[in-house]
Write a structure and sequence with these properties.
The protein is 12% helix and 54% strand. By secondary structure, the protein is mainly beta. It has a domain at 43-132. Strand 7 and strand 8 form a beta hairpin. The chain is globular.
Amino acid sequence: MKKLLVPLVVMAVVVPGVIAGIIFYIDHSQTRPTAARTPPPSAHQGAYGAFQFTYTSQGDSVVATFTPMLPADDATVLGAVRAVAGRAFGVDLTNSATRLEGREIALSTPNGVFYAMLVKQDTGQVHSIRIRR
């Protein structure tokens, strides 16, 4: 393969009685490795009562978006969190103990703890939930 050299910078050094030039070249013949791209997560469908949700999972994290939005009702929101986590992670969270930890809802099970963060509108309606292990 023929190398393609392109001059980048020309510098001149002046010493009394002597002029010397330095030329730097860039070798464009070598290819640079490209960053590996993570494939986009695939979307899955589900429902909790009258609320349809679409969720994507990536590793130990799931994001679900609801249509229509969930009302600002603790029982409905908690039921939706359990439905999404159950479907996405394949665990039964029906009798899981719940508590607040900062801005997240923690659901304790024999299989571990699941953390849910709600994304709400100003009205208190929940349009999406992020759940992680």
